[in-house]
Amino acid sequence: MDKLERYLDQVCRSIGGPRSLRQHIRQELREHLRDAAAEHRAAGMSEEEALDRALGDFGGPEQVRAELEATHGHRLLPVVIDKAMQWREKTMKAKWLWMSWAHVVLTMVIGLEVLFLTFANVFLVPRFQRLTHDGMIDSGALRETDVHWMPSFLQGLRLTGGYTTWLLLGAAAMWGLFEWRVHSENKSFMRLSALGTAAVGLMVAVALTAASLTLPFLIAMPAFARISAPIATEQMASIDTSVSAIERAIPNKDWEAMQENANRASRAADNLARVAFAIPAATARPARLTADELRARLDAANESLRDARQAIQAKDAGRLEAALREFRQSYGPVLEAAKKPEK
Amino acid sequence: MDSELLKGTLALLILSLLSRKAMYGYEIAATVHRDTDGAFTWREGSLYPNLHKMEADGLIVGEWEEKETGRKRRYYHITKKGREALREKVQSWTELCRAVNRILEKSDGQA
Q1: A residues 46-75 near B, CB within 8 Å?
Q2: How far is CA A189 from CA A93, A201, A203, in A?
Q3: pTM of the model
């Protein structure tokens, strides 16, 4: 009787009006169909044949539903759902649609992969190689790792990039030959497989290129700190010398010399803040100051130097000494940090 | 028989049958089939929209009755308004038949 209930579902589900009305109509139609089927069975038909005959005599579900809807109105939601189901069934059977979509998507994936590889080859790899050549990326540090082959891979990629035109022409020729010579019923699937294989191959190349550009860069990053460390030391020495010179000039009230040294100390503090990550303690554990904390101290020290410069301009020795005290308070932890290099 | 002809006369048939006694849907369809020797070929499903429309118009009224077998059936009874409508429809039908027959009689032998 599942067949009967399915039929009644199709007929009754979108009839308008209250739920009780739909239930009554359903019950009435069910009784009719059961009576009809019973009569056909009595005439010698099998149960299934009798039901099929009864349903056939009753009429197609769409027709009966349309007539009942004309009398009672219809519900919008089931109508929308029915339309959606019809669309879904129709779409799912549309082999050409799915095949076309698969072709378009794979072609887009291949296009994007080629675009990335071209971009990497033209813009990223040359810059990466220049950084390596200039020593910004420590190639020595890479030799001891599992990724030592990555710069060679990038070099290979650049060399291959020189043959891009020939590679594209070769691919176009192969595709043309395929379209011309292959007449199999599975031609679409073969084309799809070829596109899929090309997409996977290019994806591997993309992944390797991206990894080759980022991993060596990250592994060789300590080289930046090493390069910047002398700059930090130089700036700290400049600050020390300038502040000492100011302190020596205070008894003589040599305001000009004090102004010059205060300016120099301030510039050096600015520069030091930019390479705060290179101050050894910034990377030393456990009791370490972070680069941000060091920058905060340096900003405070610089603020004190600014006060000192204003005091020098005002030729106010008392205010100058107070500013220098504040400077030492802020700058002291930076000096301490510099004395504790990482072991 | 032409199902279009039946469509126009279905209300007349239903009212006529219900004027004899109260009937449920399948009984109406089976009676039409039996009394006409199967001359009317129609979709039984189209009976119910007609019944419901006539009920909405107040020509008939339906009532559920539960049988001893446990099955429920909706019996339709003709109303007073339905009887009046039946009289009018019978009269119209008789006039139509007479008019059509006159034409057919005059055209007899020329088909």
Answers
A1: 57-59, 63-64, 67-68, 70-72
A2: 17, 18, 21
A3: 0.45
